[in-house]
Amino acid sequence: MVKPVRRKLTLWLLLFLSAFCLFAFILGNSHWLKRKRYPLVYEDKIRKYAAEYEVDPFLTASIIFVESGFNPTAVSVKDARGLMQILPSTGEWVADKIGLQDYSEKQLFEPETNIQIGCWYMSYLVSQFPDNRELVLAAYNGGIGNVNKWLRNREYSSDGRQLDYIPFMETRNYVKKVLNTYDIYKEIYPSLEMEDD
Q1: CA angle 166, 64, 108 (to 5 degrees)
Q2: Domain identity same for 102 and 132
Q3: Which of 16, 52, 100, 188 is 20 to 30 Å from 114 at the Cα level?
Q4: Chain centroid, CA 23 distance in Å
């Protein structure tokens, strides 16, 4: 009598676990849940400045997510500020390049100014490393000088055009995180796609 009861319980437990796993899989792959985990804030400003400076809006959103989690008041240990984690020296340099009047460091905490400066800086990096998202991201995190140095080093680049290995673990992980986030943003936010003229 005990064996049939145990068999029934085992069967019910297996059915419950199977249903739970199926539910978790469906929920885990739903856009609703992914949008909760990967929010998109300031979409209009991302689209505006990505279009103005001809950079990928999905890449911009992915950088913002990884850099600050869309927190406009974020400050890093290296004193990078705002949504796109712009260093004060970079902010001042870019503000001068784009002619921002009466610029001050405080503006790095303003979402619109931060995104504008970040998108211009991304376009500058794209001009340095055309058609190579990985190099643009490595330079955004690790600096242009380091990326150029790595490209000249056979230990890190076999052809001088691509990186086979990124020696800074922080930069290596950063590039992976942003590219992973990029794929997710492309999947769940098709509205971010720039329209062709």
Answers
A1: 110
A2: yes
A3: 188
A4: 29
